[in-house]
Write a structure and sequence with these properties.
Deoxyuridine 5'-Triphosphate Nucleotidohydrolase, Chain A, four-stranded antiparallel beta sheet, mainly beta, 1 helix, single chain, 3% helix, 10 strands
């Protein structure tokens, strides 16, 4: 399989290239690129990464939370990077109320960049959808955690 070529630009001299931590990791870690530590609290804050990317139109670039931070009470929001965006990548982070605060330092791994392929979709309106066992059952309707 040929790798997709993504162009990236270093916007700050301290910026780090997104990097996989293991050979089978699905995401590339994004790093904080900041001059001084940032104290997170319960209000979301945008943490700069110091990089911009250029993706082909058929590539979906998503910023996803890191489970290691989540296990400490730090929440990262999901973000989509559209193919026509050329600005700096930022990661929105905040703390759960019971954590109080959390310090982010330059170079810290703050999110993952996950890359997938997009496909064109033709939307077709129909009178009825096919039947399934689940049907229109919503959250918790399968019995998992609910």
């Amino acid at each position: 399989m040929n790798p997709v070529e993504l162009h990236w630009k270093r916007l700050h001299r301290k910026a780090l290239l997104p990097k996989k931590q293991t050979g089978f990791a699905s995401g590339y870690d994004l790093h904080a690129c900041i001059d001084k530590p940032i104290e997170l609290n319960t209000m979301p804050q945008l943490i700069p990464t110091g990089i911009a990317v250029e993706t082909p139109p058929n590539i979906d670039l998503q910023i996803r939370p890191r489970s290691g931070l989540f296990s400490k009470g730090v929440i990262g929001t999901i973000g989509t990077i559209d193919a026509d965006y050329r600005g700096e990548l930022y990661v929105a982070l905040y703390c759960l109320p019971n954590l109080g605060k959390f310090i982010i330092s330059n170079g810290d791994r703050i999110a993952q960049l996950v890359i997938t392929t997009l496909t064109e979709v033709k939307w077709t309106e129909v009178e009825e959808l096919s039947k399934t066992e689940r049907g229109s059952g919503g959250h918790g309707s399968t019995g998992i955690n609910g």
